[in-house]
């Protein structure tokens, strides 16, 4: 029964999204990149551990049921988007992919962006965003990986892939990724859409000339600053969902910034509390690239947070 509880919560969340009147109506000022407005909206305040976060189900739209995917308009404010980009700008490295057999991170032309990981609760803004994600998804914060910031320049992409794992190594670190929250930190003049090639809704989505050719090969979501996309890689019975195949179309004009939070079926933290281990398969490569010195808060940690790559940075034994 315990294993079914997270999925029951997800079902409850879906009902809130479809029937927002289930939550009380209260005045809320919404701020973001698309204007401020003061109106009566249905809001839901949830307490997650020491933090509390307010979410507004009326801004959530179900875009697909196979795979399960939802858009939350203005999930982040302009200020939050800009702050996350600022934290990442001088720490970007070429993005890697997980090898399907070994689980090790390797370079690939499949993924041509650059990126970096923030530390959990790195500052007040990051902590608030993480609390909001936990409130929206009804999944514990400890099940989430650190937020990854990604930057796509002209022509850069991430070809269709799955967020659940094919290797056993990565499944030991919290199990499969059950859900992904993809937050758009910038608008993109053209291209850069998130595409679901296998979505059953792809044929019913009208697309004009303002969509890239890549986006026309499936159900697509345009990057809009402040919006967040939530989709699930597992079915409600915890089996993998092949319809969750997704990718990032090449940027044609402008640039694309995004932030990703991957959420696992169990805690992504407890395995490492008392052991000298790395929390990310890419740690050894990052250490070789000098990230222990460039990004010590994430890699090594501080008095208030445990580093994610302490073994590779040789600060524990």
UniProtKB/TrEMBL annotation:
Extract one GO molecular function annotation from the record: L-ascorbic acid binding
Instruction: Look up the record and report any one GO term of the cellular component aspect.
Output: endoplasmic reticulum membrane
Q: Which residues form the signal peptide?
A: 1-24
> What is the uppermost EC class here?
oxidoreductase
**Keyword annotations from UniProtKB, A to Z:** Dioxygenase, Endoplasmic reticulum, Glycoprotein, Iron, Membrane, Metal-binding, Oxidoreductase, Signal, Signal-anchor, Transmembrane, Transmembrane helix
Q: What cofactors does the UniProt entry give for this protein?
A: L-ascorbate
Topological category with respect to the lipid bilayer: Single-pass type II membrane protein
Its domain of life reads Eukaryota
Identify the EC number(s).
1.14.11.2
Record family assignment: Belongs to the P4HA family.
Identification of the protein by name: procollagen-proline 4-dioxygenase
**What organism does the record attribute this protein to?**
Solanum lycopersicum (Tomato)
Gene coding for it:
LOC101262682
């Amino acid at each position: 029964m315990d294993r079914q509880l997270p999925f029951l919560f997800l079902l409850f969340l879906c009902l809130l999204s479809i029937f927002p009147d289930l939550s009380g109506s209260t005045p809320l000022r919404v701020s973001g990149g698309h204007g401020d407005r003061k109106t009566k909206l249905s809001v839901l305040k949830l307490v997650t551990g020491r933090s509390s976060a307010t979410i507004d189900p009326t801004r959530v739209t179900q875009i697909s049921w196979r795979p399960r995917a939802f858009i939350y308009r203005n999930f982040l404010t302009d200020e939050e988007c800009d702050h996350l980009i600022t934290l990442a700008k001088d720490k970007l490295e070429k993005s890697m992919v997980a090898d399907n057999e070994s689980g090790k991170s390797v370079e690939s032309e499949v993924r041509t962006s650059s990126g970096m990981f923030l530390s959990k609760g790195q500052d007040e803004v990051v902590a608030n965003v993480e609390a909001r994600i936990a409130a929206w998804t009804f999944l514990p914060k400890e099940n989430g990986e650190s937020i990854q910031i990604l930057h796509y320049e002209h022509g850069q992409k991430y070809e269709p892939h799955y967020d659940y794992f094919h290797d056993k190594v990565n499944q030991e670190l919290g199990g499969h990724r059950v859900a992904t929250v993809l937050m758009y930190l910038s608008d993109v003049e053209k291209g850069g859409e998130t595409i679901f090639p296998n979505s059953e809704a792809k044929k019913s989505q009208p697309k004009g000339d303002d969509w890239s050719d890549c986006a026309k090969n499936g159900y697509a979501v345009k990057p809009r600053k402040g919006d967040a996309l939530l989709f699930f890689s597992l079915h409600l019975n915890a089996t993998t969902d092949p319809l969750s195949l997704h990718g990032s179309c090449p940027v044609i004009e402008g640039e694309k910034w995004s932030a990703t939070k991957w959420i696992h079926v169990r805690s992504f933290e407890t395995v490492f509390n008392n052991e000298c281990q790395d929390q990310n398969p890419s740690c050894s490569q990052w250490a070789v690239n000098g990230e222990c010195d460039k990004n010590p808060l994430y890699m090594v940690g501080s008095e208030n947070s445990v580093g994610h790559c302490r073994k590779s940075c040789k600060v524990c034994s």
